Amino acid sequence: MAITSGRLLLWSPRILGILVSAFIGMFALDAFTHGRSFFEALPGFLVHLIPAFVLFTLVAASWRWAWIGGVAFIGLAAFYALMAKGHIDWMHAISGPLAVVGVLFLWSWFHHHELHAS
Fold first, then answer.
1. How many CA atoms lie within 13 A of 50 on its CB side?
2. Which whole-number Å values give the CA distances from 36 to 14, 48, 49, 93, in the listed order?
3. Domain locations along the chain
4. Which residues contact 104 (CB under 8 A, 6 or more apart)?
5. CB 1 within 8 A of CB 115
6. Other CB atoms closer than 10 Å to residue 26's CB: what's the count?
7. For residue 25, which of 15, 31, 56, 68 sits 20 to 30 Å off, Cα-Cα?
8. Quick one: which of 101, 110, 57, 104 has its CA closest to 80?
């Protein structure tokens, strides 16, 4: 495997996992749109950040063990797809990126020996 493609395979799921986590975290900003003061909206904001923190934690665990990220991200994508029945646009916006990151982590895991040999 070429060094450039190996680095891309190694780093793309990690970087995309962080970006997906940040994307999910942006939905927490909705807590500030209900006409409440900053301090009234802060608890709701923190609660809505829990999914982003979970994803960041999964990316951190997957940094060393890519199979964890593959299984977890694909599992979360499937779970959200089942929960978002009737909302195809929601399913594509959330489950799509989660599934892509999961597949990339699995791909990285399957090629682990090649990536660390170069």
1. 4
2. 36, 16, 18, 28
3. 3-117
4. 9, 12, 13, 16
5. yes
6. 11
7. 68
8. 101
pTM score, two decimals? 0.85
The per-residue pLDDT for range 65-74, each reduced to its tens digit, is 999 999 999 9
87-to-33, 42, 94, 95 alpha-carbon distances in Å: 23, 28, 11, 11
- 58-62: long-range pairs with CB below 8 Å, 24+: 58/17, 59/14, 59/17, 59/18, 59/21, 62/13, 62/14, 62/17, 62/105
Q: Are 118 and 12 in contact (CB under 8 A)?
A: no
The number of residues in the chain equals 118
HEC readout, 74-110: HHHHHHHHHHCCCCHHHHHHHHHHHHHHHHHHHHHHH
User: pLDDT tens, 5-40?
Assistant: 777 888 899 999 999 999 999 999 888 887 888 888
